């Protein structure tokens, strides 16, 4: 599983570099207004700018945290046998949403435990199961959310 996690983190980093525009200077997150820098990383106090290498280190450290948190959230039963693309989707989702907002996708998490990939992908998109109301994640970044849900559904890019 460790090799799969490392590969999933590398794949997630590739996707995040494309999705999160590199910013040398601090900017406000459009979702919650928090200060961000680099590839959408939380900005440490006092930091006003960063170079590519610093941003890359911050991205890797954040992804390590994401991987640990997703594995803790789902446990071995939730991630057992999961392909690296699905793990990478969950790491990216956690990177963007954080713990509290990711936990709000309880029906998605339940579907993951049931290995129902279609339902899990649907629940990434929807606020309420079976209703045509988009999740806040979809409202904020619809193209990314739809792409991630499709990759999760298929188990490949």
Topology, element by element:
Blueprint lengths: L1 H18 L3 E6 L6 E4 L2 E2 L9 H28 L4 H20 L2 H8 L3 H9 L10 H5 L1 H13 L3
Antiparallel strand pairs: 1-2, 2-3
Helix pairs in contact: 1-2, 1-3, 2-3, 3-7, 4-5, 5-7
Q: Major sheet: order of its strands?
A: 1-2-3
Please trace the helix and strand order, writing H or E for each element.
HEEEHHHHHH
**pLDDT < 50 runs, ≥5 residues:** none
N-to-C CA distance: 20 Å
Mean pLDDT: 89
Radius of gyration (CA) equals 15 Å
Please state the structural category: mainly alpha
Strand content: 5-15%
What portion of residues is helical?
55-70%
Shape: globular
Q: What is the helix tally?
A: 7
Largest sheet: 3 strands, antiparallel
Work out the number of β strands: 3
Using brief descriptors, characterize the structure shown.
157 residues; mainly alpha; three-stranded antiparallel sheet; 3 strands; 64% helix; globular
Question: What do you see in this structure?
Answer:
With about 160 residues, this protein is mainly alpha-helical. Helix content is about 65%, strand content about 10%. The protein has a domain of about 110 residues. It has a three-stranded antiparallel β-sheet. Helix 2 crosses helix 3 and helix 5 packs antiparallel against helix 7.
């Amino acid at each position: 599983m460790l090799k799969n996690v490392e590969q999933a983190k590398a794949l997630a980093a590739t996707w995040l570099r494309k999705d999160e525009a590199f910013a040398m200077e601090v900017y406000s997150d459009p979702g919650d207004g928090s200060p961000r820098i680099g590839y959408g990383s939380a900005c440490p106090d006092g930091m006003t700018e960063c170079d590519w290498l610093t941003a890359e280190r911050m991205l890797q450290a954040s992804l390590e945290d994401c991987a640990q948190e997703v594995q803790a959230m789902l446990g071995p039963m939730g991630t057992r046998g999961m392909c690296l693309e699905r793990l990478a989707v969950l790491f990216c989702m956690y990177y963007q949403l954080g713990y509290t907002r990711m936990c709000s996708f309880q029906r998605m998490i339940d579907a993951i435990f049931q290995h129902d990939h279609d339902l899990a992908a649907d629940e990434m998109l929807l606020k309420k199961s079976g209703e045509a109301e988009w999740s806040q994640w979809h409202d904020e970044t619809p193209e990314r959310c739809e792409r991630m849900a499709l990759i999760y559904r298929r188990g490949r890019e």
